[in-house]
Amino acid sequence: MADLGKPQNTIAVLQKYNFIFQKKYGQNFLIDTHVLQKIITAAHITDEDFVLEIGPGIGTMTQYLCEHARAVAAVEIDRNLMPILEDTLQGYRNVEILNQDILKVDLARMIEEKNNGMPIKVVANLPYYITTPIIMGLLEKHLPVQSITVMVQKEVAARIQAAPGTKDYGALSLAVQYFAKPQVVASVPQNCFLPRPKVASAVVHLECYQKPAVQVADEGLLFRIIRASFNQRRKMLVNGLNNAQGIPLSKEQLQETIEKLQVPPNVRGEALTLAQFARLSDYIYEKLNSI
What we know:
Elements: H1 7-16, E1 29-30, H2 33-43, E2 50-54, H3 60-68, E3 71-75, H4 82-88, E4 95-98, H5 107-115, E5 120-125, H6 131-140, E6 145-153, H7 154-160, H8 171-179, E7 180-188, E8 193-194, E9 201-208, H9 219-231, H10 237-242, H11 251-259, H12 274-290
Parallel strand pairs: 2-3, 2-5, 3-4, 5-6
Antiparallel strand pairs: 1-8, 6-9, 7-9
Helix pairs in contact: 6-8, 9-12, 11-12
C-alpha cells in the first residue's frame, strides 16, 4: 500500500478521485510521516488494542493504526470519502469504516460489541470547529476510554493543559483535567497538512483517569460553577456565580461559601485549582440541600 503520509501519494489519490475539499467538514489531511509516527508512539498503540479513529479522511492515519492495532473502527462523516477509504485501506483486514457523525454514534454499544466493554484508545485528527464537543462528549459520558490522542489547534492544546493563574486557563482546562491527564506531545506546523490550515496545530495525549481527578457530590453542579466562573473571566468569582443560572444562592451566601476556601473575597475564578473548585462545589451543594 502507498504510504499516504508522503505528500505525493496523497496528491495522487486526491487526483484519482477528483476529490474536492469540503470547507464545512474542516478537512486538512496530514502529509508528514514523522508526525504520524509521533502520534502512534504517543498513543501507545499495541497489537492488543481496539482503536476508534475519528475523521480518517483518506485513510492516512488509519494505515498506520492498522499496522499497529488489533482492530480499528474509523468513523467518517463525509460520504464522498467512502470509495477512497475502501481503496486506500483495501489491504487491511482489521479495519471497519463507518460513514456516520461521531456525535450520533452509540459509542457505549460499539465498545461493548467490538471490545467486550474493555477500554479502547481514541485517535483523531479533528476538524477544529468541533474539537471541544467531541473531546468533552468522549469524556463526559464516562465511557471505557483509556486514552485520547488528538490533533488540535495549538491554542486549544495550550488551554487544555493550562495551569491556574495563566491566560489560557479556563473552563476547558478544568473540564479536561477533571477526567484526564493532558500532555502536549508535538507541535505541528501548517506545512504538514494538505491544504495548509491557517493556524498551527499540536498533538495532545489525554490519559483518562479510572475515576475523576477529584470527587464531588454533584458533578453537574461542579461544571455549572466552573462555567459560571469563566463566563466573564474578569469578574470576581462571587459576581460570576451570582449571575449564573442554576446556583440559587444569594450573593451573601455565595460570599460566605467562597470564604470557606480561605481565599481573598475578591478572588477570580482563574485563580482556583480544580481541587478548590471541587471543595467550593461541595460547600454550595451542602448549602443548597440545607435550605
